[in-house]
Amino acid sequence: MKFTLEKKIIFFFFLAAIALLSVMLIFYYNAQKIKSTNDLVEQTQEVLRKSDDVLLDVLNIETGSRGYSLTGNENYLEPFDNAVITINSNIEKLALLTKDNLNQQSRVDSLKKVVNERLVFTKKTIEAKKKNKLNETGERVLNGTGKLLTDIIRSIIVDINSEELRLLTQRRKVVEEDTKNFTIIFMVLFAIIIIILSSVYILITSNLKVRQKAEEKLQQLNKELAYQNTEKEKRADELIIANKELAYQNTEKEKRADELIIANKELAYQNTEKEKRADELIIANNELAYQNTEKENRADELIIANKELAYQNEEKEKRADELIIANKELNFQNGEKEKHAAELILSNTELKKTEEQLITVNKELETFTYSVSHDLRAPLRAINGYSKILKEDYTVKLDADGMSSLNAILNNSKKMGELIDDLLAFSRLGRKALTTSEINMNVLVRSIKEEELIESSKKTEFVIQELPSAMGQQSLIRQVWVNLISNALKFSKYKPKTIIEIGSYFKDDLVVYYVKDKGAGFDMQYYDKLFGIFQRLHSQEEFEGTGIGLAIVQKIINRHNGMVWAESKLNEGSCFYFSLPIINS
Amino acid sequence: MTYHTNEILFVEDNMDDAALTLRALKKSGLKNSIFHVKDGAEALDFIYCKGAYASRKTNENIKLILLDLKMPKVSGIEVLKKIKSDPRFKTIPVVILTSSKEDPDIKICYELGANSYIVKPVESDNFFQTIKDLSMYWMISNQPPL
Known about the structure:
A: alpha+beta; Four Helix Bundle (Hemerythrin (Met), subunit A); Heat Shock Protein 90; two-stranded antiparallel sheet; B: alpha/beta; 5 helices; globular
């Protein structure tokens, strides 16, 4: 089963959409998870705070009662009274915060019980002091029951805290594990998206090649048919002339046949006249037998001559018949020519069909380009936009790993947008017709140099020779110079000093222009890949770019019937050449 | 529901694009009230005060229409054609907001009388800036007919 180009593209888009959607879903799931973990961490910290509050209250109770017991000063009772009021509510809050953990609940329960005992004990001590039962007070302070209870409370709180801290460590470990898995899934999904995009590119280029081949074949067929047509018209004209000549000869012969018939009749009439005279001679001169015989002889001779004339007459009729046959032959040949003409019309119809198919293929390609441009950009915009919202509004909830993943989404979706735009720009180049004029290369190159120098902050030395003019479409040739000069600047950016040389020379009937730099250069063993679309010989970190610039240069120059080539040495520099036809040739 | 306060009619079928555009309009500090409809048919109902919008009385306050092209039911081109051929509405500025610069419809839109044709950028900062610029221009700098 064969799928159409459009179906394939839709399939790839569908895959891309699924991959993109997965990225969004995974991201959403992860954000949720981080949020819930953060809530738990906050809860743990709250438990730690509350348990410290309880401990503080117990210490206040202890110091308050001890101070009062020793001095009898009522000021010491103030922290004690405050602690008595807050301690129970703090324990209740602690119970509420740990209600999902049974172990903690039982610890809180025993805490409550011991605190109560401690309160009852302390109150009794204070009452004893108030009633001035000095012995009992001293005994209560000295027998150590209070300290024992306080130690129990402290150990319970230490247990509660260590349990919470253990839970906190465990939760953090789970989050780290999740983040690691999440990053791996991300990388895989982006790799899939890049593969899908490459497949779409391969489909476009192969489709373009098929279209070009069909066009070339059509042009050849057209030329052949036109030549055959002319030949056949020439032969038809020749036949018509021969036909007319024969028709004219035919008429001439018919005329002569008619004349002979008239001459024959005349002779027949004379014959009759002579027979009449012979009869008259027989009647008038019976005696002259000799003369009579002589005249009879003459009459016989005349009969022979008469037969001779009749024979000649028959001959002429035969020739007239032959002429009729020749006429028919001519008619037949005429019919053949009409048949040929009909065949020519048929092959013309075939040609038109092929042309219509080409138009259909072109339309399909345009529809496809429109789909790529519209349908791929919309979901990308959504991904980039929502990621931006996360970055702007949820910074507090994301940790450093989350933020770096989010930045990766933003950068990659932006990059994919640029790739799509480049791809479309490249395919547009092949479709528009060229409108050429004479280009003043000196003016063009100098204006580009000024623009590029504004953008590059480095000190750059340009050596520009006098450049001859050439024919071409100015906007496209300008693009070629911009790409080559900006490449030269880009690949020189790590060199302390930059010299860019621009010049030209004539070769055969072409003018060759070149741009030479002393930049990073490349290894000539990868030369085959240099002008390929999205091919790069350096890493993105080293030199930015999508890898479309030289592919565009090659396409433009090929459309101008020129050539592009390059020479380079790694770390020493590159020289890019392109040729255009000389104006007068 | 009353509609007389609405000053911008925003026609967009893609809910994500709509959410991002509305957010950008809001963040750019625009105070004018925006009404969002989800396709061309709803847009025409709104403008002609029909169907769900039968209770609307006037289009006097509408200062700008933001129009997407590729929509179900009635396309943006059809909406544009109808608005610009109606003497009552043809002075309302219409800004085409679309996804693609490859769009074969750019020429058609200008021929039908679109006031502006804007391609939504993929990158969110550019997108935000574009929406901000266009709202500032059409709602503040531009002087509508009196």
